[in-house]
Design brief:
By secondary structure, this protein is an alpha/beta fold. It has helices spanning about 15-25, 40-50, 60-70, 100-120, 120-125, 150-170, 200-210, and strands spanning about 5, 30-35, 50-55, 80, 130-135, 175-180, 220-225. Strand 5, helix 6 (about 150-170) and strand 6 (about 175-180) form a beta-alpha-beta unit. The longest helix is centred in the middle third of the chain and has 21 residues, at about 100-120. It is globular, with a radius of gyration of 17 Å.
Length: about 230
């Protein structure tokens, strides 16, 4: 049975590159997105056929989460990558941050990864030694925050880190490990054109880290080079 990977947020950037690299490595990939009919995903589908399964999934929609899980029909998932994320405003500050912005980022960045993981718990448990990778951000680190600002994004990623630690403990009995990963500052629509790391480099590093996580690293926070990040 081939190694199976379930990835959220796959139409562009790091998510799309992770799909591409895992397929090239011989994995079966379940790629989810709000619009999986995108040209980039369809091009990969044309090359890889049934090894790539495209699923419609808005990670904030509980009905679509359940439909995606049902479509797997109990298949084991060796690796779940909660990649879908939202960074709406780089300029939110004490005066400008809106409640709606904060709530939406919390839903996408912290609550949805938990809900997707919980829905796939049986599939993860069915695999031998499964891993859940939460794509977090160093901006969620308390110790590393020396500039303030970005309240909604920073706090949502800090919350995701807390979810990671809780799930690492609660799913250990299933044989499932859970880690938070910082992909670097990546040149994507979210990261912007001035970011120093390209999506291919980030995805390659993340893949190497994911495949090397051991039991002692369960519940940890690491960057795409494997270096530990302070909470």
């Amino acid at each position: 049975m081939s190694h199976s990977v379930f990835i959220t947020g796959t139409t562009r950037g790091i998510g799309l590159e992770l799909v591409r690299q895992f397929l090239e490595a011989g994995s079966k990939v379940f790629a989810t997105a709000r619009h999986p009919e995108s040209d980039a995903l369809q091009s990969l589908k044309a090359v890889h056929g049934d090894e790539l399964q495209l699923l419609t999934l808005d990670v904030t929609n509980s009905t679509e989460i359940q439909a995606a899980v049902t479509s797997l029909a109990g298949q084991p998932v060796n690796l779940l990558i909660n990649n879908a994320g939202l960074y709406q405003s780089r300029s939110d500050d004490v005066e400008s941050l809106a409640t709606e912005t904060w709530l939406q980022e919390f839903h996408v960045n912290a609550i949805a990864p938990f809900m997707v993981t919980r829905a796939l718990r049986g599939n993860l448990a069915a695999a031998d030694d499964a891993l859940v990778a939460m794509i977090s951000s160093k901006m969620g680190s308390m110790a590393d925050n020396t500039s303030g600002g970005a309240y909604s994004y920073r706090s949502s990623k800090a919350a995701l880190n807390a979810v990671t630690v809780c799930l690492a403990q609660d799913l250990a009995g299933d044989g499932t490990r859970v880690v938070a990963l910082h992909p670097g500052w990546v040149r994507t629509d979210m990261g912007g054109a001035n970011a120093p790391v390209d999506a291919s480099q980030s995805a390659s590093g993340l893949r190497k880290v994911m495949t090397g996580i051991d039991e002692n690293q369960n519940g940890g926070f690491f960057d795409y080079t494997g270096a530990a990040i302070p909470w």
